Amino acid sequence: MANKKIPMRQCVGCREMKSKRELIRVIRTSEDEILVDATGKQNGRGAYICPNRECLEKAMKSKGLERSLKIAVPQKIYEDFEKEMESIETR
């Protein structure tokens, strides 16, 4: 019986390879909106980030999210991500 392949993605903050299920997907839609993709299946250019504050701060500092999505990310979006990360950490 063949083993199933685990999809791996790189976090834009810490730059570590982790399984796709461990990371949060952020997408840029065709209308240039930036959204968190909870299902992991929405259409759009995607980037992955670890669900912790340190990786988000690293991504902000290095502009990793902006590079991956190929669009400028406003500060308000980062603030929204921080709120979502807090809700994920408290679960």
What does this structure look like?
The longest helix has 15 residues, at 75-89. The N and C termini lie far apart (36 Å). This protein has one domain: YlxR-like (Hypothetical Cytosolic Protein, Chain: A, 2-Layer Sandwich). The mean pLDDT is 88. It has a three-stranded antiparallel sheet. The chain is built from three helices and five strands. With 91 residues, it is of the alpha+beta class. The radius of gyration is 13 Å and the shape is globular. 34% of the residues lie in helices and 22% in strands.
Short description:
By secondary structure, the protein is α+β, with helices and mostly antiparallel strands.
Strand order of the largest sheet: 4-3-5
As for the number of domains, it is 1
Taken in chain order, the helices and strands follow as: EEEEEHHH
Q: Count the helices. How many?
A: 3
Structural class: alpha+beta
Unreliable stretches covering 5 or more consecutive residues: none
Q: What is the second-level CATH architecture?
A: 2-Layer Sandwich
What is the CA-atom radius of gyration, in angstroms? 13 Å
Strand content: 15-25%
Count every beta strand, where a strand is a DSSP E run of 2 or more residues. 5
CATH superfamily, please?
Answer: YlxR-like
- Structural shape: globular
- What is the end-to-end distance? 36 Å
Q: Assign the CATH class.
A: Alpha Beta
User: Main beta sheet, described?
Assistant: 3 strands, antiparallel
CATH topology: Hypothetical Cytosolic Protein, Chain: A
Average per-residue pLDDT, rounded, comes to 88
Classify the helix fraction into a percent range: 25-40%
